[in-house]
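seq as requested:
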Amino acid sequence: MTALLEVTDLRKSYGSTVVVDGFSLSVGKGELRCLLGPNGAGKTTCMDLIAGRQRKSGGTVLFNGEDISSLSEHQIVRRGIGRKFQVPAVFRELTVRDNLEVAFGRSKGPFRNMTQFGRSAGIRRFDEMVGLIGLGDRQDVVAGVLSHGETQWLEIGMVLMQDPSLLLMDEPTAGMTEKETLKTSQIFNALKGAHTLIVVEHDMSFVREIADIITVMHQGKRLAEGRIADMEKNASVREVYLGTEGIH
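struct tokens:
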């Protein structure tokens, strides 16, 4: 499988505090990779470094063969990397449809994006997204009254409106009901192949449903990597993260 993202010896320090310590990661095109680890392992910081939200202290981040680690966050978005945060960032006073229109394209200007949306490509993209996230019958509803799960799906749709090659998802099922989590797994599985995903997640039942490969972090380093069955048997992973009962 051809690598889309290559992270090598990535480091991030705040003074004498080391948060990411020589972390390396290779993710193939069309793969869904889950990034696991206990709180404070450095997972979200790694996502920030890949997306340009923070500056690295050392190492390289290659995306499609290009070193992007010195680019701005906006430049990285334009290269084709989309980011969803744990707390949904939607326009609560706008409708579902308006939110998706604003997100269309990669311009800094939301109104320019809405103008571009009126073209046939934008309309096709909208129809595809509302079908994928299951909000077709909610498109005229103001985002502020959506349920938590619906709000999460809307933000996923907003990221996807830009048609990124790589999606970075930070705890997308946090606060969801079991039914909402199941639907989210269906959305993510539908994205495999056409998109590459890196998902930070704590819900192991969700991880079991979606992950191709799991990378486990501990104290800023890569502790282990492999398929979920292998991680269940890995003594180091069980000790620092999964516990003696393994994955349920």
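Strands lie at 3-14, 17-28, 32-36, 58-63, 66-67, 81-84, 166-170, 196-200, 213-218, 221-226.
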